Amino acid sequence: MSTLAKKDKRIDKVRLKKYSLRYSISVVRLIFLIGMTFIVLFPLFQKIVFSVMTSKDLYDATVSYIPKHFTTDNYAEAWRKLGGLTVFLRTLGLTIACSLLNVACATLVGYGLARFKSKVTDTLFLVVILALVLPSDLLFTTRYMMMVSANLLDTWVPMLLFSATCTGFKASLYIFLMRQFFKGQPHALEEAAYVDGAGPLKTFINIMLPGAVPMMITIFLFSFVWQWLDSSYTTIFMRKIDLISTTYSKLTFDVSDSSVFSSLNISLTKAAGIIIIVSPLVLLYAFTQRYFVESISRSGLVG
Amino acid sequence: MARRKSLEAKQKISGYLFTLPFAIGSIVFVIFPMICAVIFSFATLKNGSGFLGNDYSNWGLVNFSEIWMETTSFREAILSSLSEMLYNVPVVVIFAFFMASVLNQKFKGRGFFRSVMFLPVIISAGLILSLSGDGLIASIVSSGDRFSETGSGSAIQVTDMFQTMLEDMNVADWMVKLIVNSVANISNIVSMSAISIVIFIAGLQSISPSIYEASYMEGATKWETFWKISLPMVSPLILLSVVYTIVDNFNGSNNQVIAQIHDKVNKVAFDTASAMGVSYSLIIITILVIVFAILNKVVFYQD
Predict the structure, then answer these.
(1) Statement to judge: residues A216 and A282 lie in one domain
(2) What's the average model confidence in pLDDT over A96-116?
(3) CA-to-CA distance for B75 and B147, rounded, in angstroms?
(4) Res B156: pLDDT
């Protein structure tokens, strides 16, 4: 009897040790992750708070996060400086057009590079890697001159051309991701389709494309974000067309007034401007993020 | 036999057709500009009537001697971006790997923390970063009376105490510096490692659970499985992540060298910009080849 009780106690001790270890690990993990979440989200939170404050609130020692003088003036001012609805819709249109072209091109080329091996495709893959590594400014000079001599500067055409051929901003990364994805897919389905008499194009559209949708959404997300925020291409090829990525610099200065108060107001407007610029991206991310990890983990990046 | 060959020929042709958009784009927008950039870098360009609307004179190493010998700003930018890269890459890769192993465990709220950790892909792209440097609000918020007890002042004190503690422990100087800098730069590091975290999570998920089960049956501890299974299995991805981080560091829009080149392009100093771009690309490619050659020997490929 007594030995059994002793044994019980010892088992309890072991169990206690095991459980306490497990719980302490999960507590430490939770604290760590909350800290990381704080680091990521706090700047955004701060911007949101500042964007509805007046400069009075900034000097008020009793205000830290909840403004006493709630205002939407900053948003109105930022919206005006960014160029209003026309510029917003124009940027949206350009971004969506470029992203769709990017996705279409990357999917086609990625499939071609993954499945049809020849010397040409091998060389092309090398060029993809090269384009990924080279700084885009190296290529700007010639591209600029080409666009000048073709009289296409300050139109949408250069950006659309770059997107349609996947040579734009970070676009070779999309081809790379697509190629890795298709490489990770099993051959069996395609072979069955070939045996049944389908051609390469039909096989691609009917068999391979449905499975590639998560990856396509991921590439659309990347492309949208980078195109939306890209100022390196737009400041060279679309200098005279107002886009959010070019008008944003108007947020940072105000010619009319240079007192401390006005520069404070500028900071507040800037906070509101950032929220305006980021909100479509965060919205898009909220809808697409579940495809994001799924597609990357299925992409067979290891191969 | 003849039929089989025709199928192969068909396959080859469809391979060309699939990759056609990028094949055209890469010749027109990548290879040709690259060759032109090399040509431009050896001449002095003037707006004229020659090839691509330029007149060429002064063939030789004028531009290179200008950027490397006569002025110091380019050299300094290269050196500082190199040293930044040397420091960023190991920190980012280690942090990303650690983060991915944490986010790969099973616990409540994992989806939420994952989506938060990928958010920096969106909210810290170049443009947002350039807008976020909000010195004024930050200085008022932290220097006023409001946060004198709890604000950034005390955070600095904590870092100081931490540093003295490390120094008392006789930790080597460079390590103290590295740790303290990483702590101070944590938000930067988190945002730089977002893509690497995705890459590592994908890699960790692709390891078959049966390998772990077998090792536990043989009595391996978690520590041993980490070093003998997880690490070797994701080591190809460590290579990928290192390469990506290097490229990202060198080609990011907040890189000083890129900013200088972009500035020159904007000022229509195409010859200098090309010389800078060519030198910089050569440096990047050399570093990548060296890193690849070294790491490729350590990496474990399963098949």
Answers:
(1) yes
(2) 92
(3) 41
(4) 56
Long-range contacts of residues A188-196, Cβ cutoff 8 Å, at least 24 apart: A190/A115
Together in a domain, A20 and A127? no
Taking the CA atoms of residue A108, residue A109, residue A111 and residue A114 in that order, the dihedral angle to the nearest 10 degrees is 180
If you count them, how many residues does chain A have?
A: 303
Asked whether residue A281 is assigned to any structural domain, the reply reads: yes
- Whether residues A276 and A129 share a domain: the answer is yes
Exposure string (b/e) for B239-264, b if CB count within 10 Å is 16 or more? bbbbbbbbbbbbbbbebbbbebbbeb
- Residues B270/B40, Cβ–Cβ less than 8 Å: yes
Phi, psi of B138 (to 5 degrees): -60, -40
The kind and range of the H/E element at A2 are: helix A2-51
Same-domain status, A142 and A20:
no
Whole-number average pLDDT of chain A:
83
The answer to whether position A91 is within a domain reads: yes
Q: Does A124 sit within 8 Å of B127, measured CB to CB?
A: no
Q: What are phi and psi of B107, to 5 degrees?
A: -160, 165
DSSP state letter for B51: G
In chain B, pLDDT over 70 holds for what percent of residues?
83
DSSP tag of B226: I
Query: Which chain B residue shows the shortest CA-CA distance from A194?
Result: B7
pLDDT one-digit tens code per residue, A2-32: 677 777 777 788 888 888 888 888 899 899 9
In a domain, A180, yes or no: yes
A69 inside domain: no
Q: Chain B within 8 Å of A243 (Cβ-Cβ)?
A: no
Same domain, A166 and A124: yes
Closest chain A residue to the Cα of B203, Cα to Cα: A302
Total count of domains within chain A: 2
Q: Report the residue of chain A nearest B27, measured CA to CA.
A: A127
A135 CA to chain B: closest CA distance, Å? 6
pLDDT band at B126 (very low <50, low <70, confident <90, very high): low
B-facing residues of A in 73-102 (CB < 8 A) are none
Domain that holds residue A137: 75-298
Residues A26 and A151 in one domain: no
Is the confidence at residue A53, as pLDDT, over 80?
A: yes
CB-CB: which of B144, B203, B281 is closest to A135? B281
- Which of A49, A226, A43 lies closest to B187 in space, CA to CA? A43
